[in-house]
Predict the structure of Signal peptidase I.
Amino acid sequence: MNWTLLAFVALLAGPALIWYSRRSAQPVFDAEQMAESALWGYFFILVGGWGVLSMFANPSDLFFVVMLVAAVMALIAKLMGYKAKGNEKALPDWAAFGFSNALVLAAIGIGKTFVIEPMQIPSSSMRPGLIVGDFILINKSAYGVRVPFLNVPVIPVGKPERGDVVVFRFPEDTKINYIKRVIGVPGDKVEYRNKQLTINGVRVDSVPVGNYEYKDAGQDSVQAVRMAEKLNQHKYETLNVPGTPSLIPMSVHDFPMREQQCQHDETGFSCTVPQGQYMMLGDNRDNSNDGRYWGFVPDDHLAGRAFMVWMNFGQFSRIGTRIQ
């Protein structure tokens, strides 16, 4: 589905609905008297504006700003002498929208920005634990309460640990959110060679526990082996596709500190994680665009820790699945 096109449609439909409501609406002296068509018009403008602006900045930050628009409308109306109820002169529809929706929309924006944010899994890079179509919840304060846009923590809470499933801003395009598993924290030496993960010289146990088959839209069926791994308190499974390489050297990008911190060859890679940065890999090790190719994730790119699947319209049995 083309979400950008829908955003533009909403942005055009909003003013049309507001114009239509003004043609037939009676004067409004109370915010609760606002015409329903005008109400939907302003909602469409907010949603459409958020969608269009998301092409230029991270949508998580923009959601917070857009949801505060109603509060700004209400404040301006208040400064102009309007009230939510009992006005002597007719209340403009924008002021009525602000008065009637400021608290609700501000609460949604604050909750999504600082507490819990939903996200949909778009690819198979985190199979078998997370599949395409999963809607997940992210604990936004797991790694500190952060300032929107700057994304720096103002209230430190915790740091990512090995094994955490983390949502972060993609270092090569911060408008995009990625989800991977933390494999290395600052100071760790991480190696992944011949499909064996080693951290600080210690091999991470990876035991085959069964077969796994999946098929993404427009692609052939993939036959893989499920591998049981454990990092810290996290027990999870990864996928190993027999016959595929641990690394495709020609696909490795020229990322910051690559020459100083990493070595890549046909057998895999090794990296020493710099201070203030993290190494991320996908659980679907042979089908994941991750840190082995584009490098490290800075702390100020972290968005939160994924903890639960709350919906999958194709597989309702996955609702409530805890992310290991």
Notes: The longest strand covers residues 173-184. The first helix runs from residue 3 to 24. Residues 3-114 form one domain. The radius of gyration is 24 Å.
